[in-house]
Amino acid sequence: MSDKLIIFDTTLRDGEQSPGASMTKDEKLRIARQLERLKVDVIEAGFAASSNGDFESVKAIADVIKDSTVCSLARANDRDISRAAEALKGAHRARIHTFIATSALHMEKKLRMTPEQVLEQAKQSVRFARNLVDDVEFSPEDGYRSDMDYLCRVLEAVIKEGATTLNIPDTVGYAVPELYGDFIRTLRERVPNSDKAIWSVHCHNDLGMAVANSLAGVKIGGARQVECTINGLGERAGNCSLEEIVMAVRTRRDYFGLDVGVDATQIVPASRMVSQTTGFVVQPNKAVVGANAFAHASGIHQDGVLKARDTYEIMRAEDVGWAANKIVLGKLSGRNAFKQRLQDLGIQMESEGEINTAFAAFKELADRKSEIFDEDILALCSDESV
Ligand code: KIV
Ligand code: ZN
C-alpha cells in the first residue's frame, strides 16, 4: 500500500458551502494559488454546473494552476459532468468528482429513486466521466449511513466503470473514529476490486470528530486520501481541518508511517488568507493556526520553553509558518522569561539588582494589565521609570 497520503483540499467547494463564506472568482483564484504554494495534491475548485459564476471560477483556476490536480464536483448526470469537463479543459491535471446519495433515507426521501436506479445512474455517470477525463472520483453521498451490502455493490460497479478514487463521506458528521475506520476497512475487504482505486475519507464536524474520524479512516481503514479544508471551513460545523490532519500525520509519523507532500510553512499564510477573505475569524485556541497555538503564558511553561522548547512544544511554530513561538508576558511570567525579553529588545541592564527592580515593576504592572506588550517594557525600563 502506498505510504503517501493525498491531501485533497475542498475549501473552495465544501468550504464555500458554509453559510456566509461565498467568495468571488478573484478571491478563489488567490486562494487556489496559495493552495498550490502549500502543495496540496488536489484542489476542488468548485461545482461548475451549480452557477455560471462557479463555472468561471473553476475554469480560471484550471487555466492557471500547474502543480496540483484541479477538480470540479458534479452530480451524477451528463449535464453536470459535461460542464465540469468543459470548465477543466485548460487544466494540467483534471479530475471530475461525481456523487449520488446511497443511504436509504436519501434515496427514498430526497432522490425518490430506487436503489437499482441509483446504482445504474452511478455506473452510467462514472462511465460518461471516464470518457472525458482519466481521473474520476466517485462519492456515495451519506455513504457512512448507507447499507453495507448495497454500498459494496455500488462501489464494485463504479470501479469496473473506471472510477480511480472512491470517497466515503460522513456527510452529516455522525461517525465515531473506531466505527468509521472499521467501516472503511470492511469496504476495502469486501469490494473485490478494491485495490484498483484509491480510497478517500470525507468527514464533517457536527460532533467535533471530523479530524479524528479521518485519521481513523486512514489508520484503521487504509484510506490514502483525506478531504479537508483550511481552518475546517465547511457546511454547518465544517469539514476536517487541513492543518490538523497534516500536522497530526507529520508530527506522529512514528504512528501513521505516512508522508504528506504539503509545504507546512505555508499553512499559517493560507489560514490567514481564508479567514480574511471569508471574514470567518479563527478561534485563538484553534490547533496549529490559532493565535495562541504556540503562545506560552504560564511562568513554569515559559521557563521550560526558554530552556528547551520541546518541554512544552510538540511542533515548531516556524514549521507551520508562524514567525516563532510566542512568550506572552503577563502576571504568570517568571523572571527568566522577562530577562529573555529584555535581551530580545536590546535592553542592557548593568546588574542583577537592576533586573530585579525592573522585574518587580513589571509584576506590579502585570497585576493591573492582562498582557504586557514590548512597548510597556520599553517604558518600564526607561531611565525615568527604573
Ligand atoms: O459531504 C458530502 O457528502 C459531500 C459530497 C458531495 C462529497 O460533500
Ligand atoms: Zn461534504
The number of distinct structural domains comes to 2
Q: Which ligands appear in the coordinates?
A: 3-methyl-2-oxobutanoic acid, zinc ion
In what range is the share of β-strand residues?
A: 5-15%
The portion of residues assigned to helices is 40-55%
What is the structural class?
Answer: alpha/beta
What does this entry look like structurally?
The structure is a single chain. By secondary structure, the protein is α/β, with parallel strands linked by helices. The protein has 2 domains: 4-278, TIM Barrel (Alpha-Beta Barrel); 295-385, Recoverin, domain 1 (Orthogonal Bundle). The chain has 15 helices and 10 strands. The strands form 2 sheets. It has an 8-stranded parallel barrel with strand order 1-2-3-4-5-6-7-8, surrounded by 9 helices. The chain binds 3-methyl-2-oxobutanoic acid (KIV) and zinc ion.
Output the keywords.
single chain; 386 residues; alpha/beta; TIM Barrel; Recoverin, domain 1; 2 domains; eight-stranded parallel β-barrel; two-stranded parallel sheet; 10 strands; elongated; binds 3-methyl-2-oxobutanoic acid; binds zinc ion
